[in-house]
Structures are given as C-alpha cells and as structure tokens.
Amino acid sequence: MTAARGAWDQQTPAMRGALLMIASTVAFATMHAVVRMVSAELPALQIAFLRNVFGFCFLLPMLVSARFAQLRTKRFPMHALRGAINAVAMLMFFSAIAMTPLAKVTALSFTAPIFAAALGVVLLGETFRIHRFAAIFAGFGGMLIVLRPGFAVIETGAILAVVSAALWALAMIVIKLLSRTESSLTIVAWASIFLAVFSAGPAIWVWQWPTLPAWGGLVFIGIIGSIAQLAISQSFREADASAVLPFDFLKLIWTALLGAWLFGEIPDRYTLIGAGVIFGASLFIAGRERNTARIQAKL
C-alpha cells in the first residue's frame, strides 16, 4: 500500500485526474449494467433507494474514522436542495435504464453539461458568449440525432433520460456552489443521506422483497456507485475539467460493450453519431471556460 501510494503521488495531477476519470467510467458503466439486470426483478424506484442506502453504508467507515467531521457543514439547506433534485434525476435515470438500451441512455446523459452551460447563464449570471451558444446549439442538435423525432418513435425511457440529464445539470450547478467550501467526501456523503431520504417514499410504494442474488446486486450497485462518485469528484479536483472530460466518453464505449454482451443491444449509428456531437459540444464548452478563467486570472 505504501509503495502504491508513493507511485500515485509521483504522477502528475493531470495523469491522476485522467486515471480517476477512467476509473469512474468503468464504475458507472458497470453499475448501469447491474441496475439493468436487477431491474428484471425489482422496480427501478426501489433499486435507486437501496443504491443510496448501501452507498452510504460504504462511506460510513470513512466517516466514522474521522468522527463524522465531514458531515459538519453550514450549508445544510443547499445539501438538501441538491439531494432533492438529484433524487428525482436518479429515479428517472434508473427507470430509463430499465426500459431503454444502455448506450442510448448513456448518450443522452451526455447532454447534462449542455443543460448546465445554459443554466449557468440563467442562474449564475455567467456571460452568454457566442461560442457557448454555438456549443449548446450543437449539443441539442446531437440530442435530436439520437432521438430522431418524426423519424422514429421516442421511447418513454429516452424522455426520462433527457429530463434526468436536465435535472442533473441543475444539481451540478448546486454542486459547483458547494465545492467552494465543501470537500468531495462531504458532498457525496450528504448526497447519499438525502438521496436515501427522498427516494424512500417511492421505494416503499412499489416495494418487493428481493431474492438473495438481487440483494447481492443491490449491495454491489451501492458500493460501485459511491466509488464512481468519489472518483469523478476527485478527478475534477486533481485537474481541469477540459483535461479529464475527454476520458468520460469511454463510458459510452463500456456501456455499449456491456449492453451488447449481456443484453444483445447493438447501438445504432444515430446513437453513436449523436453521442459524439453531444460530447464534442460539452468538451468545447469545458475548454472555453478553462481558457476564460485563465484569462480572467491574469487580469
């Protein structure tokens, strides 16, 4: 462990950020595949609730070792707001996974940064530059390529995935404000608590007692989901978003492979092309924001 820690510390921040982002894509893709498998037996609303419960149990030893210092916060209402928004987004996203091909859901989830860029102008008063407008326009164009309204039937799951992405974008705005004073573990821990609280009601409404294999899948979903959240949060702390975001596209590759292997789902060319356009627009926005921040820092 000491040798591994030393080797990790010797890496550049950009390399650590990239490796953490890659790890998060593997974790997220694996979690989504297991959610699809468990959803054959249990309602998505119940899976989302238990994912949050077991996710918090995974974080609990870290919190206990620090005597719950990470839960000390003066921004309790903002954590609650993030949790409420995130809970609805997660319930919708898990429902989408249960009924729509994994690759398509993942492709549509890439619209979250596009929505976040638009919301940043409205809610945070960020400057609406022509480059950002063009990227947002291109991102939504990519979404239309995936959905193909008027040429293909738009599934309920696809609609849920888009609405979930929009809500997750709103949660990203709140996280952006929280990250100015809160650590990654504090944000993730409070998110797990509030997500469990807010998703409990819908879960009880549709509750079915899981079988032993399903319990195993649910525990795995909770653990791998928390690992993914911690990895991506730390990735953004290690390096600029524009440096690590290109690796996030691997999530589509992993989900496409898992979908084809486990469920026989082969993504069509519209999903792949649209995902590429959406992701390219998101990457462009991240790069422009980094350059703008650097210019402003020099002034």
Automatic annotation (TrEMBL):
It comes from the Bacteria. Residues 16-147, 156-285 form the EamA domain. The keyword Transmembrane applies. It is found in: Membrane. Pfam families: EamA. SUPFAM superfamilies: Multidrug resistance efflux transporter EmrE (SSF103481). Keywords: Membrane, Transmembrane, Transmembrane helix. Belongs to the drug/metabolite transporter (DMT) superfamily. 10 TMS drug/metabolite exporter (DME) (TC 2.A.7.3) family. This is DMT family transporter. It comes from Arenibacterium halophilum.
